[in-house]
């Protein structure tokens, strides 16, 4: 047994898929722990469908997860590292995966992860994934950090397991609680400030202004550049994450992928009372138009996510960088 699933009421097919994901997760954690001993897992090896450079570990993780699911109930396997959906055979489930999230952190020994999303299989390969995130029957991630953990929702709260290195299996710990409301952390790659749309700049300007600004309090910023690690922090202690669309070529819809990054994270976050939007609209009810579609992504504490949306409703002149008295938004 790779993971404790008792009392969750999962179908035998879904439970088997979870066992396989957990077994590969434990294997990937071991491989990561030996980075540099026999091979360099951060070595560049190619380019994926989205034009992103692939690291050795991206490809290793994709191969391991795909192979492990070949004889399971997963009929369709959609991966960041595969151009098209891979048909694995007859089955009732469809699984989308970012096999290795946060690849820019492999060489610096910072937390990285795997993100997965499971749907009932639909009529065809693409149809199984180009649908609303509300139809997911499971969404979660594995975080490879100082501690390896698996976090997943089956639509009834958010469950949490920790990899027990003594036994090699994931042990269930306390469920994730409702998101804390009153935290002061936000996460955004601030080096893109000059490329952001005006409402995002205005929102961040007001945070940076701190106690002297319109919000009247200080905030703290974190940017790990691993979506899984940012999600884990927000699930543990709240806050808000933003990866908006921006003016850079190829970043019109941000950087993150709707199907195998944003939808499963949105599924988790909403299960603990949080919000997840593209800045304005809900992620879970939006329809991706292609497998590797990108979407702007804002998630975390529901009130903070709603506040970001409110900045998009401000008149243009009020979002100008010089406007420092957006009285409507004082808290
Ligand atoms: O380098 P940037 O632009 O800050 O982007 C960081 C984001 O890119 C990602 O690394 C994209 O995921 P991949 O590593 O799976 O491509 C996210 O984990 C992270 O939030
Ligand atoms: Mg990713
Ligand atoms: Mg990836």
From TrEMBL:
Q: Does the keyword Cytoplasm apply?
A: yes
Domain named Fructose-1-6-bisphosphatase class 1 C-terminal is located at 179-312
InterPro entries xrefs? FBPase_C_dom (IPR044015), FBPase_class-1 (IPR000146), FBPase_N (IPR033391), FBPtase (IPR028343), Fructose_bisphosphatase_AS (IPR020548)
> Which residues does Mg(2+) 1 bind?
80, 98, 100
**Similarity-based family:** Belongs to the FBPase class 1 family.
Tell me the subunit arrangement.
Homotetramer.
Its recorded name reads: Fructose-1,6-bisphosphatase class 1
Species, as recorded: Rhodobacter lacus
Q: Which gene encodes it?
A: fbp
């Amino acid at each position: 047994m790779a993971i404790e699933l008792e009392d969750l009421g999962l179908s035998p097919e879904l439970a088997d898929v979870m066992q396989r994901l957990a077994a590969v997760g434990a294997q990937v954690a071991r491989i990561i722990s030996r980075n540099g001993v026999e091979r360099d897992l951060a070595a560049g090896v190619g380019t994926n469908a989205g034009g992103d450079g692939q690291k050795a570990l991206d490809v290793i993780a994709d191969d391991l997860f795909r192979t492990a699911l070949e004889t399971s109930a997963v009929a369709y396997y959609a991966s960041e590292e595969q151009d098209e959906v891979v048909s694995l055979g007859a089955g009732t489930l469809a699984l989308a995966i970012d096999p290795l999230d946060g690849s820019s952190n492999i060489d610096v020994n910072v937390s990285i992860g795997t993100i997965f999303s499971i749907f009932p299989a639909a009529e065809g390969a693409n149809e199984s994934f180009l649908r609303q995130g509300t139809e997911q029957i499971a969404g979660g991630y594995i975080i490879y950090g100082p501690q390896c953990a698996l976090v997943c929702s089956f639509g009834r709260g958010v469950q949490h397991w920790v990899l027990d290195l003594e036994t090699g299996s994931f042990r269930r710990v306390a469920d994730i609680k409702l998101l804390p409301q009153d935290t002061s952390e936000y996460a955004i790659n601030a080096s893109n400030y000059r490329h952001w749309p005006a409402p995002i700049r205005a929102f961040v300007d007001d945070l940076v202004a701190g106690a002297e600004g319109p919000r009247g309090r200080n905030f703290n910023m974190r940017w790990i550049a691993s979506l899984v690690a940012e999600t884990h922090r927000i699930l543990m202690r709240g806050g808000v994450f933003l990866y908006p669309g921006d003016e850079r070529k190829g970043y019109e819809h941000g950087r993150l992928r709707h199907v195998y990054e944003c939808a499963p994270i949105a599924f988790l976050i909403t299960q603990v009372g949080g919000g997840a939007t593209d800045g304005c609209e809900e992620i879970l009810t939006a329809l991706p138009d292609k497998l590797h579609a990108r979407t702007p992504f804002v998630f975390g504490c529901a009130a903070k996510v709603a506040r970001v949306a409110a900045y998009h409703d401000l008149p243009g002149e009020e979002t100008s960088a010089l406007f420092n008295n957006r009285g409507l938004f004082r808290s």
